[in-house]
Amino acid sequence: MQKRIEQYLNRATRGLWGKKRQEVKTELHSHIYERMHYHMAFGKSEEEALGLALHALGKPAEVSRGLFKLHALPALGKMLLVTGLLSTVLVTQAQNVFQLNVNTRTNICEPQDRYCFPGPQNYIKASELMDIFKAQGLQAQFDRETHNLLLDNQELHIMEHALIEDDNEIYISVSNLLLMLYVNQQASISSMINPTIHFKTAQVRLDQEGVDFNAREFYQGILSYHMPKFTKKSIITYTKPEYADFIPITIQIPEAKDGEVYALIQPVVRPTTDSNDQPMDAVAVEFAQSKEGKIDLYASSKTFKFSGIDKVDTGYVLLKLSGNPQELFYQEVFPKDVQ
Amino acid sequence: MDANTLKGHLDLILLATLEKGPLYGLRIIQEVQYQTEGFFNFKEGTLYPALHRLEKAGWIDTETQPSPIGGPPRKYYKLTDAGQKALQDKRQEWQNFQQAMKAFGGNKHAKTH
After folding, report:
1. A12 at the B interface (CB within 8 A)?
2. Which of A41, A173, A207, A209 is most buried when burial is the number of CB atoms within 10 A of its CB?
3. How confident is the model at residue B106 (pLDDT cuts 50, 70, 90)?
4. A285-312 tens-digit pLDDT
């Protein structure tokens, strides 16, 4: 029964996001609960009372249409105006971008489970992802038995270690999903902060309850997937305390559009070891998203020259990355202005 | 009842219902149905976008309180000073409208003169 309520609430609030969506869900849930209580006081069973309550509320699509017009369209309108799009494009564009919430969950791993990543990981709810694709007119289905995701007749297998089940809901690891969509050439991804999945005519923007969601792991995945063609070295990212040795730099790229993703690959600054404490031959990589023609990164030196990707083993290489599998994954960039 | 009839007067109906005191969604619906003897019998889900629109306009304010019967908290809506003023304006509009409509059938003798 709880699932039926949750399904209704998800559909009725489709297109809203973050705090507003949660508020509206709570209000509608309260309405359903109170209506059920009323009918049960007149002798109806719980199931009958729920049926009557949902019928009285009306079709979820009708409810969501009214709420979407009021809450989501103005917000999307503002966002798109900032990017300078013509006002005539607003409505079509706004109706096509849907928001999907990312949940952070902390994994506790069994020592023998080599695929399990301990600590906080990001997941999306499989049912919400399906709802959003369906709302955009595409067929979408997730098979709990086979772990196959069927999107408009294209099948994508999600590996077991990328799934968790909680309260009868299936959650899919975001990094894994994005990378699988990319590797199987089924969808393209744009931006790193609150990225958007582009699948056929559908667009889904990932967001973390109003907090920025950073898809750095996905872009690291793209690099790790392609880089063996250019270097035998492993790719590592530094954790925050390790940046203490690094210098913050701002690179000016005037032609960069907001939301483009860049990777700075540079030599490691200290001997690196793997999880078994064995020495590791690696290069370090850092990711940034452009804003107003600038990207902020950390470098081990302030005086360096950018090399091409053929010198990735020893030099400093700046790449503009593409999350579109139909394009080359990188473009070399040689900016002159580094501060 | 024609949906357009409701749409044209929904603001007046909701503001007038809240004039007596704060109410939450379901109670607002029950109150409207009781006062109009079931004439305004609409899909309950359409109420919320209307309430949220009035809230955005600054005509009503909200307060969340725990539900005495358990379950999720109730969101109470209450009229603001600006809402009280809007209600007066809408009542006046309605009276003017009624007056104007008399010429088109509201007054039985209108056609014969």
Report:
1. yes
2. A173
3. very low
4. 999 999 999 999 888 887 788 999 989 8
Dihedral of CA atoms A257, A258, A260, A263 in degrees, nearest 10, equals 110
Nearest Cα residue in chain B from A32: B26
What's residue A106's pLDDT? 64
| Lookup result for tokens 């909200």 | B62
CA distances (Å), origin B17, targets A226, A319, B13, B86? 64, 62, 6, 13
Closest chain A residue to the Cα of B42, Cα to Cα = A56
Q: Is residue A110 packed enough to be buried (19+ CB in 10 Å), middle (13-18) or exposed (0-12)?
A: exposed
- Contact assignment for B67 to A56 by CB distance below 8 Å: no
From A39's Cα to the closest Cα of chain B, the distance in A is 13
At A163 the pLDDT is 84
Contacts of B43 in chain A (CB under 8 A): 56-58, 62
Nearest CA-CA distance, residue A158 and chain B, Å: 35
CB contact under 8 A, B43 and A31: no
Whole-model pTM: value is 0.54
pLDDT at A183: 83
The segments of chain A whose pLDDT lies below 50 read 76-95
Residue B49, phi-psi category: left (phi > 0), alpha (psi -120 to 50), beta (remainder): alpha
In tens, the pLDDT along B45-60 reads: 888 999 999 999 999 9
How far does A100 lie from chain B, in Å, by closest CA? 21
- Closest to B54 (Cα-Cα) out of B95, B94, B90: B90
d(CA B15, CA B97): 18
Task: Tell me if A71 and B72 make a contact (CB, 8 A cut-off).
Answer: no
